[in-house]
Amino acid sequence: MLAQQLANGIFLGATYALFAAGYALIFGVLDILNLAHASIFMVAAFVCLTIVLAGFPLWLGFLVALVVAGLIGVILDRVAFAPLRRRNAGTLVPLISSIGFAIVVEAVIRGIYGVNDRQFPEAVRTAPPLSLGPVTFTLFDLAILGAALALMLVLAYVMRATKIGRDIRAVAEDRIAAALLGVDIEKTIALTFFIASALGGAAGVLVGLQYNSVTFDMGGRIELKGLAVIILGGMGSVTGAVLGGFILGVTETLAIVFVGSSWRDAVAFGVMFLILVLRPGGILGRRALRTA
Amino acid sequence: MPDFLELYTRYRTVVDQIGINAILALSLAVCLRAGQLALAQAAFMGIGAYVAAITVVTLRWPLAAGTFVAIASAAAVGALLALPVERLRGVFLAIATIGFGEIVRIVAYNLKITGGGDGFNGIPPLLSTPWIYAALLAIGAIFFALRGSRFALAMQTTREDEAASQGVGIDTGRVRVTTLACAGAIAGTAGVLYAFTNFFLTPTDFAFGRMEQILVYCVIGGVTSPLGAVAGATLMTILPEAFRFLRDFREVTNGIVLLAVIVFAPGGIAGLWKR
Q: CB A266 to CB B215 under 8 A?
């Protein structure tokens, strides 16, 4: 029972981690809370669903959804954040403009697809059950975990070993110094939004598949969980966010065992509140704030 | 004026919503005036609504007593919330208070006395439109009366420069506690009005979506301006109703107006007025 819940926690945590990695990346680079992240998460699930329902294979839907999510992220930056960067608008205003963008995106999707729950075709999700000792899961669960882990490894590689990653880290550290050293700030920020939103989109597709439910308001459930995760990991730390995602996933599934499923969300927000009050730098501490 | 009466009966819920939303926007405006990005208004509103419903409907208290206890509870929760978060600023304060709001919602969802997820049913319509607007006017009058007071100035200096205001002898910790208590009382009042004009309450009425809307009213209005906040609440409550013909797309207008105001009119409605 406990082992099963731990495994469930890891499956759940993988999607939290993926979602929060994108959230944290944007906070780390721009110091803004992007409340439109969850709406891009949702759009990606719809893009993938539409492609699959049109008869194309799932992997194609997944890839297209990632690219579309990334592009919407770039548009988000141009529409909601770039005009504010030019006039140093503080923290409140970008937060609100991201809400504005999210309202538009959600209304459009709601207008196109309606308010009802959508499902992937059963054939896409059928997979043989596997068991590992006392733990049972399906090949499909494993594939979701694998996809999430693979994307996080790609992110780690991009951030550490490529020019794009170095530019992003330089802009996060000191925008003016980076500009002086020849980094194209606007291009780097656009790339940051592409990467972060593609990750959020990937999380959306995987969550849609995991629960087999795609709705226009599916982002609301993960939006605030994502906040809890980046607080847990230390705002702006991508490594911390990934770690925080798995910790929250496992904590939540254990909470189901010990305090009952209706209280599980209180655990997430209780932990988040306590960490903010007692240890505002997150579990990795302040030092992790600016590292990728 | 029969036309006016007919119009009122037709749009009564919208008229009520405008008043309640304006009160909620004023509650957030208090916090923003003191530079506190504290986003627990929806939770304060929920506390006010549930306490009023429980005392008046379940315990059969008189309306006035229930209302008083409801508003006092919301104010007390506001003051108590200010203590643990005293070191948090900006986005961090926002996130902590959002987390607090979620906890309140989840507690309401799990308790028996609140009716849980099924909601609190059968609340008699003891209040109506005139009460909502009387409350709005009263709160507005208090804002107006206090506008040049020591406390209002202390809030403003705390927003602009916390270290400097401590330097001139302002107890910023106390300003923060009082601000959140006032915000709690105002949003609690909105909650009481909501409870007795809506027949039933569910925890999702007080979820993060509501908080986002309140934030939007204030920013549209011009962040710290009370009149702006009321105007913002009015505009953003009417818009989706006016665009009902867009059906499921209708919220698009709210998003576009919001983005346009932020990008092109940074001072909001209050800023346009001053120009």
A: no
